[in-house]
Write a structure and sequence with these properties.
22% strand, 2 domains, Ribosomal Protein S5, domain 2, single chain, binds ligand DP6, alpha+beta, 35% helix
């Protein structure tokens, strides 16, 4: 399919300056996207929980451009400060969107963005940031042109645009759980955008917790972008892609069934497989830290001695996500406080849980 629309240009005298604002959460992959091809298409399917607390709040201010410049005109500030790096990255993203949204070069943009989590927490903000921005753009399209035929079409397009910014961002536009990539078990699934599988979520997973242990807040030595690239020469890649597709299908079934044990088995294997792929890339690299392993060991001991279905996952870094049912929250939080915080940088962790997805907000007066 294509979203290219050469007709989406504006008549400048018709457009008043305006602002749009969305808050969009981060997500944690249960089955990992690792490897891509073409224009940000995934080598395998993935499935994630959308989080609640870890989110980006983005306001997009737009105005008709007087200068008729060639490129796009974008300035982005993060937490109130103009950020050159993000401004350039966002301008590049807008340039890529020109076949879809030719009007982006007829307007000038000032973007204000804030993350709910500390900037230095070593938590990737691309999923929440890119999805918040994509939602602002799709809302802008509706404001300048015509409404989408339904909300599903609106969110599919937002997910498609978010994917072009950062692959994992396409899963953040829905609450609950989302699948990205083609799998037999989800007939509407696509490589081009994610789809919600929220209605298939068993009640136990609707209130699931995800506590994020900040083992290290340093910037990681190898970016996800570079990591995806290294999959191209990885000898295990074909077997990995087949495994991830099969596991995405199975995970959707597990989420429906409410099977917390099988959920945890797949979850932990996915985390370790992701890092094994990094260690078997050429050149190989290691992103987990000794404290990551120390926590994993204690967590597995805790699980076998208590029977509580507490399992971990990792993203492309040393920090651990601890996933568990709401009924076990008191015991797990005590365990984290008493035995795990010692291994975290500045004893920090972020308590999060499965969330309801992005929301559009009123633009505040100070904006
Ligand atoms: C390990 O979405 O950050 O978190 O598409 O290059 O922006 P780009 O990569 P990104 O990769 C995320 C990888 C992961 C797994 C996942 O979220 O599925």
């Amino acid at each position: 399919m294509t979203y290219d629309r050469p007709d989406l240009t504006i008549i400048s005298s018709d457009v008043q300056p305006g602002s749009l604002r969305w808050r969009s959460p981060s997500n944690i992959a249960l089955v990992k996207y690792w490897g891509k091809y073409g224009d940000q298409l995934p080598r395998n399917a993935s499935v994630s929980f959308t989080l609640d607390g870890a989110a980006t709040d983005t306001t997009l201010h737009y105005n008709v451009r007087k200068d008729h410049g060639q490129g796009v005109d974008v300035q982005l500030s993060l937490d109130g400060k103009l950020n050159e790096g993000f401004s350039t990255r966002t301008a590049k993203f807008f340039e890529r969107l020109l076949p879809i949204y030719p009007f982006l070069k007829q307007l000038s943009f000032r973007i204000e963005t804030n993350n709910s989590f500390p900037h230095s927490a070593g938590i990737a903000s691309s999923a929440s940031g890119m999805s918040a921005l994509a939602l602002c753009l799709v809302s802008l399209e509706e404001k300048l042109f015509e409404p989408f035929k339904d909300r599903a079409a609106f969110f599919h397009k937002a997910s498609y645009l978010a994917r072009l910014g950062s692959g994992s961002a396409c899963r953040s536009v829905y609450g609950g759980a989302a699948v990205w990539g083609k799998v037999d078990g989800v007939p509407t699934s696509s490589e081009e955008y994610a789809v919600a599988v929220t209605e298939k979520l068993h009640p136990v997973f609707q209130t699931y917790h995800d506590d994020i242990l900040l083992i290290s807040k340093s910037e990681k030595s190898v970016s996800s972008r570079a990591g995806h690239g290294l999959m191209e020469g990885n000898p295990y890649a074909p077997a990995r892609y087949a495994q991830a597709n099969q596991r995405t299908n199975e995970m959707v079934e597990v989420l429906k069934r409410g099977d917390v044990e099988r959920f945890g088995e797949i979850l932990e294997s996915e985390a370790l497989t992701l890092h094994a792929l990094m260690m078997s890339s050429q050149p190989p690299y290691v992103l987990i830290r000794p404290n990551t392993l120390a926590v994993i060991e204690r967590l597995q001991e805790f699980r076998s001695s208590t029977g509580i279905p507490l399992y971990f996952t990792l993203d492309a870094g040393p920090n651990l996500h601890l996933l568990y049912p709401n009924v076990d929250a008191a015991s797990v939080k005590r365990f984290i406080r008493e035995q795990l915080l010692y291994f975290c940088e500045d004893q920090m962790y972020l308590a999060d849980r499965v969330g309801k997805g992005p929301e559009q907000l009123e633009v505040s007066v100070s904006d």
